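User: I need a structural model of DNA-binding transcriptional regulator YafY from Isoptericola halotolerans for a docking pre-check later this week. Nothing fancy, just the predicted structure tokens so I can convert them on my end. Input:
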Amino acid sequence: MRHDVARLRELGYPVDAVRGPGGRYRLGAGARLPPLLLDDDEAVAVAVGLRTATGTAGLEEPGRSALAKLEQVMPDRLRRQLTALRTASTAGPANTDSDVEDPEVDPGVLRDVAAAIRDHQGLRAFSRGEPVELEPYHLVAWQRRWFLVGRDVPTGTWAPYRVDWLELRTPGGRRFTPAPFPGDLTEFVVREVARTGWAVHARIVVDASAEEVLARINPAVGTVEALPDGRSVLVTGGDSVETVAVWSGMLGFDFHVTEPPELVEHVRVLADRYTRAAPAAG
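Assistant: Understood. Predicted structure tokens for DNA-binding transcriptional regulator YafY:
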């Protein structure tokens, strides 16, 4: 009993003791939070929430501190899972919001992917129905989505994989020795997602130089390519044609869209709408 009471006090539970024949122990009013009892998915949810907080101005240090304290009072099994998720992930730059509902990410998949990164364990999965076998390297949280940076086993090429598009297969792949990643992880994810990872992709010719366009966009919007005639191409994407059209109009430059056809049609609709909204001159 004394051993158990001492352990409770070490964990932050105030325990009052009365000696003598009528002696007893009694839990006192707590001045500190007791250990939390969380199941696996709740622990992942808390870790993801605190990871998001560390990417918000003013909450970086409190978020890191809270996550560290949470890990200290967790059972070893959950602490290993939280540590794996924390060390295996970073947050990308904030960007313009979207009109499409956020995708749901299975906490179990996040947990399994983080553990595979920690243990250097290969993954076999379906990504949007296509089979993939990869060496998981790192998780990047960006635009309220999670991307797994991994190396394709058959080809050796690096790519970001949307975690909510992954359906893990059992058994997984073989253990591997991680290869060094060639570059900056966050820049790689932003660039590759702009090129291949959105539901809608577009190449927009802008009547301005690459330097002028880069000065006006968030780096998370996409990549900019210079053209020989002094103009530039913005390679970008989004969850919907509406989002891409809004981003394009906010550049402040004339631009030209030729694909995809759905985006071309939506730009025409917006042009007509704005024309009707503006009173005729004179």
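Before docking, keep this in mind: The chain has a mean pLDDT of 80.
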